[in-house]
Amino acid sequence: MTPAFPLGLWDISLxxxxxxxxxxxxxxxxxxxxxxxxxxxxxxxxxxxxxTTSILFLTTVAIRIAAxxxxxx
Amino acid sequence: xxxxxxxxxxxxxxxxxxxxxxxxxxTVYSTPxxxxxxxxxxxxxxxxxxxxxxxxxxxTILDSTSTTLLETLDxxxxxxxxxxxxxxxxxxxxxxxxxxxxxxxxQETNTLPLPEAMQKLEMQPASKxxxxxxxxxxxxxxxxxxxxxxxxxxxxxxxxxxxQRLPQTLIEDMEIxxxxxxxxxxxxxxxxxxxxxxxxxxxxxxxxxxxxxxDTCKRATQLSTIFSNVGCPLSSVLAIAFAKATGKPTQILNxxxxxxxLTSETKYIIIEEPYI
Lengths: 73, 276
Hints:
The complex is a heterodimer.
Chain A lengths: L8 H21 L13 H27 L4
Chain B lengths: L1 H28 L2 H19 L8 H22 L6 E2 L13 E4 L9 H9 L8 E4 L4 H11 L8 H15 L5 E7 L8 H4 L5 E7 L4 H7 L5 H5 L2 H14 L3 E8 L5 E8 L6
Helix pairs in contact in B: 1-2, 3-8, 5-10
């Protein structure tokens, strides 16, 4: 049996989507504008992580769209 | 705090190693469940390692150190008998454009010296003949931090740009105010000549709510040479920002601080040099 990674692009895309939503919502809730500003974590880094995960998710979507347009399965 | 940071880093690294092991096992045995678990563990491992706790100090420590410095400055100015209004200087008045200074004249009636005279004064700050003194204002270091957070020197941004970027930087990045409003006003300037009244359009009003500098600003109201003159650290940082962004001398026109020290409303005047 040849070792192969069992998850496809769609599975990774789903994981990225869920984590991006979790991080984006958390970073918004922790924004000083909403009052929950007492959590002692680096909010700038949390926001960066949320943005990075969102961009990764959108990249997987773009890859999928490109694959559909050019007929690559 | 060091223990807490090391602990979270250890947890993060442990989760990352566990996740990588699960991903490796999933690849070897081609099973999706360990792969999903592995992805989750790797994700949280990276997140916990990357997002470290911020370093905080107790607010009481901040208050006790900053109020002492304000009191010292107040006592020094009273002892040396400098009675004039503090003017925050733009870089053209200084030898080093990155330095931050405020000029306090000996008498209230004294005018602001020309840039060349000010540069000479900067070279001899303790000169007995000088009609004024150059001080490093209370918000100097905070202004440098503001520049770091904005990501550029305050000299390179316009006043309008500054008006838009300051509230977000002060609230979200620096977290020193919880509410901030900056606008140019049409208010009349009391006790000024008709000539100076023409520069009404150069009055900027800043209203902010702060919990970080609440006690420091409250204490500043009791210091006669600081209040409505040099200003509390927050008023001072805005005066520095306006002086640098406009390239013109800036004064704190008046300062209103609520009884609890939470809310502060400060008016600044950007001085048009021909009217000095």
